[in-house]
Amino acid sequence: MQLNNPDLLKNSSFIHGQWVESPQSFEVINPANEQVVANIFEVTPSQLEMAVNAATSAQKEWQALTADERAQRLMQWYALIIDNQQDLAQIMTAEQGKPLSEASGEVVYGANYIKWYAEEARRTNGAVLPMNNKNQRALVIKRPVGVVSAITPWNFPGAMILRKASAALAAGCSFIVKPSELTPLSALALAELANQAGIPAGVFNVVVGSNAQPIGEVLTMHPKINKFSFTGSTPVGKKLLAQCASTVKKTSMELGGNAPFIIFDDADLEKAIDGVMRSKFRNAGQTCVCANRIFVQRNILSEFVAQLTNKLNTLKIGDGTTEGITLGPLINHCAIDKVNALVKDAIEKGAQVITHKSEMPVKGFFYRPTLLIDVTPEMKIFNREIFGPIASVIVFDTETEVIQLANQTQFGLCSYAFTENISRLWRLSEQLEFGMVGINEGVLSNPLAPFGGIKESGMGREGGSWGIDEYLETRYVCIGNVQ
User: Fold this and answer.
1) Beta 370-373 vs 352-355: how paired, if at all?
2) Closest alpha carbon to 51 in 23, 17, 11
3) How far apart are CA 372 and CA 351, in angstroms?
4) Phi, psi (5° rounding) for residue 389?
5) Is residue 463's pLDDT more than 90?
6) How many Cα atoms sit within 13 Å of 44 on the Cβ side?
7) Among 6, 176, 234, 463, which residue's CB has the most CB atoms within a 10 Å radius?
8) Measured CA distances, 88 to 102, 105, 155, 178, 301 (Å)
9) Burial zone of 333 (CB within 10 Å; 0-12 exposed, 13-18 middle, 19+ buried)
């Protein structure tokens, strides 16, 4: 990997402004060629304790800065990330596999959260309440919650950190993050740039290790940590949430999804298919907001399948560093096994299969893009998050029917619908049981909007003013005996 700034490639945890090594290490594998990208030092229990203590002491000083001073440091961090966009994209593609164009876009997307929250730091306003007692005055003020810990996933190894860290730091909190052991290099590069930007030692810490359970126990149960944020699967999120209960931590959980993508017969079919391609095949289908179940009204089904098949065959599959590649690998063999099992079950229960026609790379964890037709609710693929380049299509007849089918899931993260009917647009916005609804749009995440789900897809929001509120506590101050 050739970088313009080799200092961005780190191999150990970043704690209290220092890079700390240890006796043991683990490998990071490039999923496109199965080669070792780096050997990373495992964080030790004593280093974890060091990180918590460093974040605890640094938080008080960081909180004491004015909002404007914190904003200036954050903007310096933002500028350095933009300046190093291509190197950060190279690192991300090497460890995660997504095409360079997608990785570069993720770098900017994540950095824009820093820019937004640098500005939002100046707007954590309180209130003066009109009291019914003339001798009392009442204030409501916002204070940082304190030390924040986070665990982030491998599918967006830069953006998932910056969505959390930028809001936390803007609020006056310190931050400790454990990135996925599959993709730690992006997090460590961001730590190097935070250090260069003048973020004080101990305010932003990255701990890396392959032994997730003991690290997770510290980050969820340590009494000095006040808030925990997690992005990942629902089963793991439930375990971490239970651990947080031991110290009654404030939590944010962005968990699994099972997004419906509904296409009505009055939709602009070309735009709808473009939305499907962007939603379903971005990051090889490895996103929590992917179109997981594609509902198509019966009288346009044949035309939809024909056009989507043509689009499917335009995908260029291979190593994300190669020019023109639009679909990279899955993250590892376990991901391939999971997708294979879902497809096998669907075929056994009557689904029809259309697959991508081009040759597949010999090395790497690649999966052939696939279209499944005649999917039904009895199939596992209808009820589970796919996390792969599989478009599963379900036919429907009426609006009432499809809303019922779309809501037939314990997940409630994101949903999509394409229609030109304005009245239907409003009905869908109100009746789809999901935290986010995209109408005539296949990609909806934005730094100024609230990102998050309902039901078993989690709690809390990232983005906009709602995101910074997750890292603030509301304090009521009553002043009596005012003469």
Assistant:
1) antiparallel
2) 17
3) 6
4) -80, 55
5) yes
6) 9
7) 176
8) 12, 11, 15, 18, 41
9) exposed
Q: pLDDT digit string (tens) for 407-430?
A: 999 999 999 999 999 999 999 999
pTM, entire model: 0.96
> Is the predicted pLDDT of residue 26 greater than 80, yes or no?
yes
Please report which helix (H) or strand (E) contains residue 175, including its range: strand 174-178
CA atoms within 13 A on the CB side of 394: 26
- CA gap 286, 352 in Å, rounded: 22
Please report which confidence band the pLDDT of residue 357 belongs to, taking 50, 70 and 90 as the band edges: confident
As annotated, the active-site residues are 254
Query: What is the token pair recorded at 34?
Result: 């199965």
- List all residues 6 or more positions away from 92 whose beta carbon is below 8 Å from its beta carbon: 98, 103, 106, 107, 157, 158, 183, 185, 186
Domains, the chain, ranges and CATH?
6-255+457-477 (3.40.605.10), 259-446 (3.40.309.10)
152, 154, 157, 163 alpha-carbon torsion, rounded to 10°? -40
Closest CA to 41 of 164, 191, 188, 196: 188
Burial of 348 (0-12, 13-18, 19+ CB in 10 A): exposed
Bridge-based pairing state of the strands 204-206 and 174-178: parallel
Closest CA to 350 of 396, 302, 382: 382
Interior angle at CA 206, CA 447 and CA 197, nearest 5? 65
Separation between Cα atoms, residue 51 and residue 139, nearest integer Å: 35
CA distances to 227, 233, 235 from 472, in Å? 10, 25, 27
Tokens of 397: 């007849």
Report DSSP letters for 328-377, one per residue: ---SSHHHHHHHHHHHHHHHHTT-EEEE--SPPPSSSS----EEEES--T
Alpha-carbon separation of residue 203 from 223, 317, 391 (angstroms): 18, 40, 42
Q: Are strands 25-29 and 18-20 parallel, antiparallel or unpaired?
A: unpaired
**DSSP string computed for 80-143:** HHHHTHHHHHHHHHHHH---HHHHHHHHHHHHHHHHHHHHHGGG---EEE--SSTT-EEEEEEE
- Token couple for 416: 């999509």
**SS3 call for 11:** coil
pLDDT for 359 equals: 84
